[in-house]
Amino acid sequence: MARILPFQSRRLPTDDEGGGTLRFRTVHGYRRAYRIAGEGPAILLIHGIGASSVTWSPLIAQLARTHTVIAPDLLGHGASEKPRADYSVAAYANGIRDLLGVLGIERVTLVGHSFGGGVAMQFAYQFPERVERLVLVSTGGVGPQVSPVLRGVSLPGAALLLSLLELPGADLPVRAVVGLLRLLDTGLGQDAPELMGLVEALPDVWARTAFIRTLRSVVDWRGQVVTMLDRCYLAEGMPTMLVWGDRDSVLPVDHAFTAHQAMPGSRLEIFGGAGHFPFRADPTRFVGLVEEFVRGTAPADWSAERWRQLLRAGRPGEEAFVGELERRYREASERSAT
Description:
nine-stranded mixed β-sheet, single chain, globular, two-stranded antiparallel sheet, 14 helices, 11 strands, alpha/beta
């Protein structure tokens, strides 16, 4: 059963506002930026589209008290290089595997936000032997519904419109709109600081190109074009926690309940009053949940034989999935599920 607690705006004290020193490694010829702190069992934090490891800055120092915390800037984001490259969720999963290999880290608890949640699920699907637990925060890849803004940015010509942000003062109208959304107490207004952070990164032409390529790999004018619902049954035995804000205007909280029903044994936590960034809205609660979840669950015990059994058995029969979830599966059948 999901727990819905009221929103309380708080922040954690941190020794370093940036959440640790930014470091760099070259992998396959591309410079990859990442933050790493602490000692102990590894937790990997995967940011969403257009963001960077900085999005986790209120959390890293606290989680690093008892864990090794790794927060990469995905390729095309933050301080990592932004080449003309493959920006699909599968490619990102491969990149994370290789970065972990360079760092000598074998297994991790994955924490993924939004697009990063989709990358986390893809990583767990491709490399289940390397995943101890999953924490999916306002994750993509559940239903087709997504903010109309993102659907619009996926259209042809969006790159030209976004290039106008290079003009002096071009961000002022955006700031005015975001401020109005906040004043009107809308869901998007809940995430005003985070939204402005994304806008401020887009005047960089290389960041803008990578942003659009990444977005178009998962979203078109109709909505999200990838799904994880058809293979959620493979998460059986993988400790999984879903976290969502009940005022999420990017990926509706309805997706949280669908994913919870589809993922055997998963846990669902709803942040009442929070938007698309519940870990920013109430970092104290979020850190507490992650720490409790890691302490209270045993790492996934993956085996090749068990994986084969699940694959051979396939998705449970339709009698086990009725109503809303059944409808989601029908929608998902039209979409890529690589």
